[in-house]
Amino acid sequence: MSGRKRDELEGVISLCRAVQAGSVEPFAVDIDYMLEVIRRYYPETRSLQDFCTDAAAINGLSEVLQSQNDWIQHQSTTLYKDPFLLNQQIQHMDISALADSFLRSWHPMVQMEQLSAKTLAGSLGYWTDLIPLAERWKESNAELVDAGTATEEEARALGYLPEEGFADVIEGFWRELEARVGPGGRIVYWDWIGADTYEETIKRAYLTVFMVSYGYANVEVDRLEETVEVVHNVEPRSDPAQAKLSIPTMIDYEEWKQWQRE
């Protein structure tokens, strides 16, 4: 079996392990595709390593199916019902049926039998001793002060305003991406955000989040191959009314050190 085919089977095994670890939902896995990969490469199995890899893939797939079965059994035992179907059922019920269901499920927390002269006296004493709102919410003695003004240049000199607008920073970041990969090109996520210092790496990851959110770029994730790539958009999405995307930023220091070594 060639190395490429063995890597594809290893990808199937990794995806099955992700399901067992809880990082991937059992029903998010394409069972038909995984079976097709195993079926396609089985005739080329020759060595002991090939047989072990094939067996591990089949075992991982069976564990995914078991996880799906456990999920279905759990939902059936907890009487789970889809909210949409429940809403449709309620809308089709008549008023008398709704009233009957309400009366049968109504369990009031307070009943007339629980009210006594002692509890009423305690409640009356509480409200009687409570300080009136007029005394609790007294007006504060605010004083008027003369406020000065500052020009935009003075505010920038004092550090209250950045020298460059945030939108300009994002656009400059987008042009840097275009210069590195070309219009519509792509680059591995860590090769894009990675820098000589950990602080600069965090800054580049932070700017990448907003670059994607504002439509200047996209992020494509291949869960099977476990790769993340940043894709340059030739024309940024400029419509502010359009829904914006966002990606989480998790920049581990040890992962950054490993990237530097590589």
Structure description:
- With 262 residues, the chain is mainly alpha-helical.
- Among the domains are: 75 residues, no CATH class; 96 residues, no CATH class.
- Helix 1 runs antiparallel to helix 2, helix 2 packs antiparallel against helix 3 and helix 9 packs across helix 11.
- It has a three-stranded antiparallel β-sheet.
- The protein is flat.
- The longest helix is centred in the N-terminal third of the chain and has 30 residues.
- It is built from twelve helices and three strands.
Q: Average pLDDT across residues?
A: 77
Number of strands: 3
Instruction: State the share of residues found in helices, binned by percent.
Output: 55-70%
Percent of residues in β-strands: 5-15%
Run of helices and strands: HHHHHHHHHEHHEEH
Query: How many individual helices?
Result: 12
- Broad structural category: mainly alpha
List keywords for this structure.
single chain, 262 residues, mainly alpha, three-stranded antiparallel sheet, 6% strand
Briefly say what this structure is.
The protein has 262 residues and is mainly alpha-helical.
Helix-strand layout with pairing:
Blueprint: H1 3-21, H2 31-41, H3 48-77, H4 83-91, H5 95-105, H6 117-129, H7 133-136, H8 152-157, H9 166-181, E1 186-188, H10 189-193, H11 198-213, E2 217-222, E3 227-232, H12 253-261
Antiparallel strand pairs: 1-3, 2-3
